[in-house]
């Protein structure tokens, strides 16, 4: 069981996921600061000083504070848009890199390509043997 756990932890996709979570948290803080300190005050100026967090509706003896919800929806939309734009740029760069790699692969003779694939497989197998 320990060996299986070690294999699970050392797989690249688990490490990539851990890094993505940390990066996502940091990115979330940046976007939250952008929304809270720049975008929300600008929206308040455009709307004549309306502060979303203080919006409420009196219902009976209490106030339903819907302003925080409105602010959370705005935050979500801005964060989603920022992630969308980031992914568009990242996908564009990935496609360019793949196109360049394909051009390079086409320029390499097939026999050299086969030798490189064999080398890569041997390296991969030797790394797996070392971890066993």
Can you walk through the features of this model?
The chain is mostly helical and 132 residues long. Helix content is 81%, strand content 5%. The chain has four helices and two strands, in the order ααββαα. It has helices at 2-10, 12-46, 67-107, 110-131; strands at residues 57-59, 62-64. The protein has a two-stranded antiparallel sheet. α2 (12-46) crosses α3 (67-107). The two termini are 14 Å apart. The mean pLDDT is 81.
What's the short version?
81% of the residues lie in helices and 5% in strands. The protein is mostly helical and 132 residues long.
Question: On the 0-100 scale, what is the average pLDDT?
Answer: 81
Q: Total helix count? A: 4
Distance between the termini: 14 Å
Q: State the strand order across the main sheet.
A: 1-2
Number of strands: 2
Tell the overall outline. Answer: elongated
What proportion of the residues is helical, as a percent range?
over 70%
User: What class would the helix/strand composition place it in?
Assistant: mainly alpha
Extract low-pLDDT stretches. Answer: none
User: How much is the radius of gyration in Å?
Assistant: 25 Å
Sketch the topology as an H/E string, one letter per element.
Answer: HHEEHH
Q: Largest beta sheet, briefly? A: 2 strands, antiparallel
User: What amount of the residues lies in strands?
Assistant: under 5%
């Amino acid at each position: 069981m320990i060996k299986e756990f070690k294999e699970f932890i050392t797989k690249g996709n688990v490490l990539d996921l851990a890094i993505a979570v940390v990066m996502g948290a940091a990115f979330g803080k940046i976007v939250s600061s952008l929304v809270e300190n720049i975008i929300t005050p600008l929206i308040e100026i455009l709307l004549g000083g309306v502060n979303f967090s203080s919006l409420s509706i009196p219902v009976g003896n209490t106030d339903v504070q819907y302003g925080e919800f409105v602010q959370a929806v705005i935050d979500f939309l801005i964060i989603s848009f920022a992630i969308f734009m980031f992914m568009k740029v990242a996908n564009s760069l990935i496609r360019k890199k793949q196109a360049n790699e394909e051009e390079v692969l086409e320029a390499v003779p097939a026999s050299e390509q086969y030798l490189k694939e064999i080398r890569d497989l041997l390296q991969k197998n030797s790394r797996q043997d070392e971890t066993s």
